[in-house]
Inverse folding.
């Protein structure tokens, strides 16, 4: 009798040893599928009235100054919900849009972007490198020039 009980326990232990590693593999596979996915993101479009710049910031600043305006760099990240909200609440209202357009040339900079930016006569780097150099760590961020 003792042998049968022990045999049943051996079966349970063997079954448990086979199932536990399998469940870990299944859980790990599930974790890999969701790793690195941003949740809560919100797609948005940069307003068409933002300046279509060649990203030569010194030249853009000269042009804006000649017209009595300043340059506003709008740092953003694709699908950033805060960027979307700022664009919606701060740049879509007609009164605010008129004020910004009157005083600033707004240029968008994607902090993970690859477009080349000539920040001054000596500095040309990607949007991402410029964001790192200016220590833009979160979005949205605005730099007035």
């Amino acid at each position: 009798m003792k042998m049968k009980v022990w045999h049943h326990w051996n079966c349970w232990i063997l079954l448990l040893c086979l199932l536990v590693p399998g469940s870990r593999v299944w859980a790990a596979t599930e974790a890999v599928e969701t790793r690195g996915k941003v949740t809560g993101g919100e797609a948005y479009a940069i307003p068409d009235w933002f300046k279509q710049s060649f990203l030569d910031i010194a030249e853009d600043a000269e042009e804006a100054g000649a017209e009595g305006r300043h340059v506003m760099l709008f740092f953003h990240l694709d699908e950033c919900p805060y960027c979307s909200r700022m664009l919606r609440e701060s740049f879509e209202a007609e009164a605010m849009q008129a004020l910004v357009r009157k005083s600033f040339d707004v240029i968008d900079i994607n902090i993970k972007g690859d477009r080349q930016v000539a920040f001054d006569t000596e500095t040309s780097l990607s949007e991402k490198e410029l964001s790192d150099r200016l220590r833009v760590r979160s979005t949205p961020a605005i730099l007035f020039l």
Q: What stands out?
A: The helical segments are 2-34, 57-66, 81-91, 94-103, 127-133. The longest strand covers residues 70-76. The beta strands are 70-76, 104-110, 116-118, 124-126, 141-144. Residues 57-144 form a domain with the Glutaredoxin fold (CATH 3.40.30.10).
